[in-house]
Amino acid sequence: MTEQPNLTGLVMEDGTAVPPSSDSYQKSFLKWAGGKFKVLPRIFRALPSGQRLIEPFAGSAVVSLNAPFAAAVASDSNTDLINLYRSIIADPQHFIEKASILFAPEYNVREQYDALRAEFNDSDDPFRRSAIFVYLNRHCFNGLCRYNSKGRFNVPFGRYKNPIFPRKQVEQFAQAGQAIEFHNIQFEEAMSAAKSGDVVYCDPPYAPLSLTANFTGYTEGTFGAKEQIRLAELARELQARGIPVVISNHDTEYTRSIYEGATIESFGVQRNISRDGKNRVQAPELLATFK
Q1: For 98, which DSSP code?
Q2: CATH architecture label of 81-169
Q3: pLDDT value at position 166?
Q4: pLDDT recorded at residue 5
Q5: Domain 10-79+186-290 is of which CATH architecture?
Q6: What ranges do the domains of the chain cover?
Q7: Residue 142 φ/ψ, nearest 5 degrees
Q8: For residue 16, how many C-alpha atoms fall within 13 Å in the half-sphere facing its CB?
């Protein structure tokens, strides 16, 4: 296995930690919309010191993997995602053997993609689903992770020339991930389990950059207005208990209103926010700190 760099930084005598240097940050082996790798230094500067990081929206897990804390707990409501992380940590070499096979050139065609996507949706084997999940992530359109109302993965084939199995990143994750507790739970349960000495970082599905009068179109079947408001309420509840919370989101009038009372840091992030892949602009984002 590849030698693992120091990804947790230096832990001081009082239990606080110093962030690792930027050149030692570990990248995710997944493509992930809204991934936080490029803004890790900004996030880590915003996070108060503490003994343990709680991350209720694990996503690509890049924050928990690199965060300067002595311990981390990462959770997500996506069962496939957490099963994937557990499968890799449990037996990394077996996982690599089975998943890397799917990156042979003959699998990089739409017919094979559709067949494997159907197998993924019909399978009840967590390990097999995990192996196919990485294939789908690297071969599907824009690396999206999307399910229909019946819980079936429905992202179409991406037509990439030569997707490569991310062996090095998987090996690094297998080692660093052993220090992280992974849970398949909702954000409310994850945040309610926080205790003194913890710091909570939340990267929820972002609120839209612009809200129309038809707000229900955003809320139905998604992480909508009700969930955004509940997250802000829980952040204030933890703040009252002396547990700091930092939340990432789009910087809009709406998010600033629900995060009223928090310390807001605003900045721009290079995102592709249009159908035209060449149209890349600075999307306004914020970090709201409840401390």
Answers
A1: H
A2: Orthogonal Bundle (1.10)
A3: 97
A4: 33
A5: 3-Layer(aba) Sandwich (3.40)
A6: 10-79+186-290, 81-169
A7: 60, 15
A8: 6
Specify burial of residue 175 (Cβ count, 10 A radius: 0-12, 13-18, 19+): middle
User: In Å, what is the CA distance from 236 to each residue of 69, 247, 291?
Assistant: 22, 12, 9
Topology match between the domains 10-79+186-290 and 81-169: no
| Residues in a beta bridge with 75 | 183
Q: Which residues contact 144 (CB under 8 A, 6 or more apart)?
A: 33, 155
Condensed to tens digits (0 to 9), the pLDDT of residues 21-30 reads 456 899 999 9
Give pLDDT, residue 267: 93
Give the whole-angstrom CA distance, residue 71 versus residue 54. 9
pLDDT of the residue at 278: 56
* Nearest residue to 28 (alpha-carbon basis) of 107, 138, 127: 138
Name residues of the chain where pLDDT drops below 50. 1-21, 213-220, 273-276
Kind of pairing between the strands at 52-55 and 198-202: parallel
pLDDT of amino acid 35 = 87
Quick one: three-class SS letters along 32-67?
CCCCCHHHHHHHHHHCCCCCEEEECCCCCCHHHHHC
- Give the DSSP H or E segment for 71: strand 71-75
DSSP string, 179-238: GEEEE---HHHHHHT--TTEEEEE-PPPPPSS--S-THHHHTTSS-HHHHHHHHHHHHHH
